[in-house]
Amino acid sequence: MGISKTESFSDFHNQMAVLFKALSHPARVAIVDYLLQVDSCICGDIVNELPLAQPTISQHLKALKNANIIQGTIEGTAICYCINPETITAIEHYFGQISQKLQIKCC
């Protein structure tokens, strides 16, 4: 079995890979889109919006939270989820750099 050799890459490259891996599932992209529409919600709200079972939604929320794409705050017995703006800014900055480099090379 192969080794991923993540230690051979910079912290930045590893961080971006974790973010993109977390966003590589359509259910997770749908969760992010939903959170952008409502600002914050609990897991049950997402279950009502997506065609997935509650345990599956919880697993996707965990993956997004582990990648720091979303954050959760405890409200009573529920966790209220919202987008982590710092992480989205980092993604935006990364793609902004790509866009700038492509404009310089292509024009």
- How are strands sequenced across the largest beta sheet? 1-3-2
Overall pLDDT level = 90
Number of strands: 3
Shape: globular
Query: Separation of termini?
Result: 44 Å
Task: Supply the CATH class.
Answer: Mainly Alpha
The tally of helices reads 5
Output the radius of gyration. Answer: 16 Å
Summarize the main sheet.
Answer: 3 strands, antiparallel
Known CATH architecture: Orthogonal Bundle
- List SSEs in N-to-C order: HHEHHEEH
CATH topology: Arc Repressor Mutant, subunit A
The structure class reads alpha+beta
Going by CATH, what is the homologous superfamily? Winged helix-like DNA-binding domain superfamily/Winged helix DNA-binding domain
Unreliable spans: none
Instruction: Please indicate the percent range of residues in DSSP E strands (runs of 2 or more).
Output: 5-15%
- Please indicate the count of domains: 1
Helix content: 55-70%
Explain what the structure shows:
- With 107 residues, this protein is of the alpha+beta class.
- The chain has one domain (10-106): Winged helix-like DNA-binding domain superfamily/Winged helix DNA-binding domain (Arc Repressor Mutant, subunit A, Orthogonal Bundle), CATH 1.10.10.
- Helices cover 63% and strands 14% of the residues.
- It is built from five helices and three strands, in the order ααβααββα.
- It has helices spanning 11-22, 26-38, 43-49, 54-66, 85-106, and strands at 40-42, 70-75, 78-83.
- The protein has a three-stranded antiparallel sheet with strand order 1-3-2.
- Helix 3 (43-49) packs across helix 4.
- The longest helix has 22 residues, at 85-106.
- The chain is globular, with a radius of gyration of 16 Å.
- The termini are far apart.
- The model has no long low-confidence stretch (mean pLDDT 90).
